[in-house]
Design a protein that fits this description.
CATH topology of the largest domain: Rossmann fold
Largest sheet: 5 strands, parallel
Helix content: 40-55%
Number of strands: 12
Oligomer: single chain
Amino acid sequence: MGSSKKSVLIIEDETNILKAIEFNLKRSGYLVYVANDGEQGLAVFNEQKIDLLILDLMLPKLDGLEICKIIRSYSNVPVLMLTAKGEEIDRVVGLEIGADDYLVKPFGMHELTARVKAILRRATFQEESTKSDYRKNGGDRNRVLRSGDLIIDTHRHQVTLGEFELDLKPREFQLLFLFMSNTGIVLTRGEILDQLWGQEFIGDFRSVDVHVRWLRVKLEEDPANPKRLVTIRGVGYRFEG
């Protein structure tokens, strides 16, 4: 039988940080893989079954942003990005290209372990509940939602806009389904976080804003002046249909 332990890959070039994270996660019961540069880390990711990736932003050979972008092209494995102080722009870019959360150096091992636990629990819950949640929101009758020329098919995991099929990341797909299931209703950022990231999410509302921004790029004729997915200032967002 295979191991029931959750597996974590750490890609970090600072040896002391790498060893500290590895030691603490192993002590917490995780199966841990390590790499100290981007190319090696990507190779390990592709060779092993990884449940969570801890990814340093600044890496030799292949940096964290590039690795995250590559991985997000074919995998929805959660990514916790490690950044240094003063790298706010890079953190935002990291969230935009698919990182689930970030942690600013220096950080305590208790905080990191808590983040890892929360992210993995949230990922497990989403994996187990996403399909059943779609069915509960109307079953077969509503598995295809339509709004004008925009169609989302939860069974096929497919979104079309007019004649074109949209290439949505898993989180974008979930976000669009949530909005289309609540057409005309204002959803606060807090409600969106709870629905898609879970109540244990430790990040901030920026994660919602980033994913909404990217969804608009794919849905709107003019993302800077959205007509389908509008901002309700000081409250949240509303899908107009």
